[in-house]
Every structure is written in structure tokens, then in C-alpha cells.
């Protein structure tokens, strides 16, 4: 399991470090096996949705950002995730779900967590 404190810049740097790249590049899915941020380290955190707040939402936002679906989240400052699941987070979730072949509900439940963590 790889722990990350994600922002757009740190995700790119972490990718380079984890893959041993000499330049910043996008990592393959195989390189990202077991990715998680440090906000909620449970394998499958509880479901979060529009209106949710807190560390579990931060975890979802961080992972969405890591996979390229952020960082323009509600109340975010300087690229940090804020832990407020608003319409921007919902839209990022839908885009991620569509790209991964999941039902685009905008809700981060068990299937979406598995894809975000790539486990």
C-alpha cells in the first residue's frame, strides 16, 4: 500500500518517485496498485455523496485529484482538498466513473473506492 498526501503537484512528483522516472510522467495502472492518501486509510471507506464532509471526502478528493480529476474542489485553497462533497466533487466522481466503466452515480461507494484505490 502506498500512502500519498495528494495535491496536483505532489501527485505528479509521487508518480515520478514511485516509478523511478527521471522526468515527471503519468504512471501506468499497474504502478498505482494500492494507492491511498492519508486522510482515511480503510481499504473500503464508507460511501460519500453530495453533502458529505470530512476526512473520508478528503480521501476521495485526493484520489480523484491523483487520477487527474481535480483539484477544483469546493472550498479548496492552494490545491489542497477541503473535505466538502459538493457539485464539483460529484462531477469529478461522475467523470471518473464513466472513464472506468462504472455506473456514473456521482456517489463514491465500494466499487468506486476499489477503482480509486485500484485494488
Automatic annotation (TrEMBL):
Domain Peptidoglycan binding-like, residue spans: 53-116
Residues in the signal sequence: 1-29
InterPro entries per record: Peptidoglycan-bd-like (IPR002477), PGBD-like_sf (IPR036365), PGBDSf (IPR036366)
Domain of life: Bacteria
Keyword line: Signal
Protein's name according to its UniProt entry: Peptidoglycan binding-like domain-containing protein
Organism of this sequence: Streptomyces stramineus
